[in-house]
Amino acid sequence: MADQPLTWSGTLARWDRRLFDAVAQRHWPGADRALPRLGRAANHGVLWGGAAAAIAVFGSNGARKAAVRGVASLALASATINTVGKWSVRRPRPLLEGVPVTRQLATQPQTTSFPSGHSASAFAFATGVALASPGWGAALAPVAAAVAFSRVYTGVHYPSDVLAGASLGVAAGFVVRRLARDAQEARVVPGDERPAAGAPALPDGAGLTVVVNTGSGTAAAAGLDMVRTRLPEAEVIECEGPELPATLAKAASRATVLGVCGGDGTVNAAATAALRAGVPLAVFPGGTLNHFAMDLGLAGAEATCRAVADGQAVRVGVGRFSPGPGGEPGYFLNNFSIGAYPELLGHRLRWAPRIGGGPAALLAAWRVLRAQRPVRLRLAGRPRSVWLLFAGNGTYHGTGPTPRRRDNLGEGLLDLRLVHGGGRPGPRLLAAAFTGPLSRSPVHVATRLRSLRIGDIPPGTPLAYDGEYAEAPTALVLDELPGALTVYRPR
Fold first, then answer.
1. Phi, psi (degrees; rounded to nearest 5) at 465
2. Based on CB atoms within 10 Å of each CB, which residue in 25, 103, 251, 360 is the most buried?
3. Around Cβ 229, how many Cβ atoms within 10 Å?
């Protein structure tokens, strides 16, 4: 027996038609031209694909991740609508009686009416972006709402079609966020770091002082909520900007355990304060980049709360460069570099406040690849010319001069990678990216060591450590401090 079209309740049908007619009879200046065009621009997701591309070019790293989430949410919503929604509820399209001809689409849709695919795609993309980047989400929300409204305004959907589609789109955004979190947790695997004996257990958080970098955005806010729920006796201090190092140092001087919620740069500042005060560190991942936390095996703030409550911690190595900023030693949990990357970082930090993060990164890359000269310095007493010197805190996996992943933060070795000078920086860096790990080639060399003396550094040469930027001294020593820092992590 053939499927029969769904018979809608009289009440719903009447309300739907009344609202549809009310929209048809209402005239908004300029809408007759703008809304049909906006709806056509959203056909096949073209509008949202363009928005994702713009965010990727002009946005930060976090914004680019948000764009990917938005596209994934749109794909999920579209697949659900077109494979299940449209054919499960076979509702005919509205009759166009009363809809002005100037609003009507030149080509009417042939699919069933319920739910609205345009509305689902619009709200899926906006929700996916908003859950990862609220600022971009706020900018997209009015556009998504206008696309959804245009479907009623042009007479191709009832209001309930649009509401159902929008609801499905929002749900798709939340589903993709959950899948992304699960995927991230699956990638986070604890290493073989040595357990730290005697790390204090703080079941309710008493003795823990957590400094939260409020500039890290929604991830830090989520981590803060988790701390307050799971460790209610912990002291929480919120701050950002230039006062962060001083606040961390003061907190470390009186705390049993120093906690920090933020990204890699914030965690670096906290590790420095913890090392100088001789206290353990609790890291609550809450930034755009959380490389240290992920390499350590911390999936999120809940894992850290559990470790603090149970007194579970490990000892990790810390990289050191002496002298550091201000004459005191500087520390790095991830990596240290001299050459092309610090130059690029310096240009980007200088231009980003004026033109935005994305354009600043592109302009900085162009400037470095076009004008940068190799750095001439002395390594272990021998003169060298390098495009890039990279030192990792622990051995990184993968090819190239700046690989991404470590399995063990407790091995006590520096992963040194050099891109030799000569030629142009672009071809040299690209060639280095294709050489194998710990390989030797005309452009790239990699090795492991415990310390390295660097001398004859030209005045004004920049250095970078864990994403921070500073001017290098004329000579410094890189070394590894094995097991120097106690960090909480669940078994």
1. -145, 120
2. 251
3. 11
